[in-house]
Amino acid sequence: MTIRPFHPKDRTAIDELAIKLHAHFAQVDDTAESLPFASPRDAHGYMQRMIDDSEDMNGAMYVAEENGQVVGFIQGVIIDHRPGQDAVFDAVHEPRKDGWIGLLYVEPEQRGSGIGRALLDEMKRYFQSKNCDTLRLKVLSGNQPAIAFYEKYGLTAREVEMITKLW
Asked: Which long-range contacts (CB under 8 A, 24 or more apart) does 15-24 make?
């Protein structure tokens, strides 16, 4: 297995993984707020936004490659909460620089093989190289395998987002 930076030649593979990722979101999101992509074009547009965010927000994107096939990816950005940028934040928080994982996906048949950990390790090293204070992410409450994976990695739940439909 190889973990390496995303390259534009990976684009088709990443789009295909994004389709699988959002189908998975739709299965584990008990609020039904997440929907599968209606078309490959939707996945392509979504992933373009994630790639753009990585570039615009001093982030990174890595892929896991096994036998020449992309079998997973991770995307993250950096949010810098330094004094003077947001008066409300300054009033209630210590200054910090957060590394945020936006997406992490590994093919189901590859899970448990260490690929997810290797992707997280690579992103963690990237965030550390940029002097981030924390590594943060959000995970759907219905995605118990992912929650267990992140807890095993050393992350702890800090907030719970509550939601109800209004229609």
From this structure: 15/40, 15/43, 15/44, 15/47, 16/40, 16/43, 17/70, 17/72, 17/73, 17/105, 17/107, 18/43, 18/46, 18/47, 18/103, 18/105, 19/43, 20/105, 20/107, 21/103, 21/105, 22/46, 24/105, 24/143
Which token pair is 22?
């959002």
Gap between the Cα atoms of 149 and 132, Å rounded: 22
Collapsing DSSP to helix, strand or coil, 74 comes out as strand
Considering just the CA atoms, what is the radius of gyration of the chain in Å?
16
Which CATH topology does 2-153 take? Aminopeptidase (3.40.630)
Q: What is the Cα–Cα distance from 90 to 159, expressed in whole angstroms?
A: 19
pLDDT tens, position by position, 109-146: 999 999 999 999 999 999 999 999 999 999 988 889 99
Q: pLDDT tens digits, residue range 64-78?
A: 999 999 999 999 999
Of the pLDDT bands very low, low, confident and very high (cuts 50, 70, 90), residue 45 is confident
